[in-house]
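Entry type: protein chain
Record version: 2
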Amino acid sequence: MYLSTLNSCIMYSFISKACFFVSILFLCSSCFQIVEEVNLNENGSGVYTLTLNLSESKSKMKALLALDSIDGHKVPNERSIRSEIQKAAGILNQMQGISNAKTQVDTENYIFEITCNFANVKALDEGIYQTLNSLIQTPQKTDIQKNHFVFQNQRFERNFPLNPKPEFEKLPGKYKDVLKEAIFTAIYRFPKSIKSKSNQDAKVSKTGKASMLRYSLYQIASEQKTIQNTIILNQ
């Protein structure tokens, strides 16, 4: 159970139910990447994209998917993976303020992407919250909270109101080692230049209108680092 809890904490926002699939990744020694992108428009609307890229592990993933189970974990087939991702997009499209939610599934290179348009950041945050509540059917769904994204008065907040460390500490050493090579990257693009940022590890682009933050999942799960960041835009 601690696997599903840690998965939902670290990758809660991968509303294509990556936690359903990542349990298998913990049995694989190769690395993978999660990329979260927010493109914000002048009026507060925008586009949200989340990508799970397993291409560097594709040979091992192909072998794993040929099995029925590993260490008691049922291995999903490609059809069920595609179905779960499409289910998430369907739920998002029913949410007020969310539109054009769609998925891209590359089962040759094992790259999975979900993207949607949002009318405002509050709608995005609510959409993620409601979708996760619909998809995650474990006692740990009570850990899901709101306000992961907030935007008001040229102030953009990426919060992380979760506490993954207790579950991380329960993981066997071999699973912790996998997290050291798994990378989470957050890229946020804005219509105005960035005046300040609270997370000093975040890099600002040459244009001044984009921010990038990159950590290993090990750093996030062990709480050595946080993806929390408050970005103030110039008026």
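Comment: The chain has a mean pLDDT of 81.
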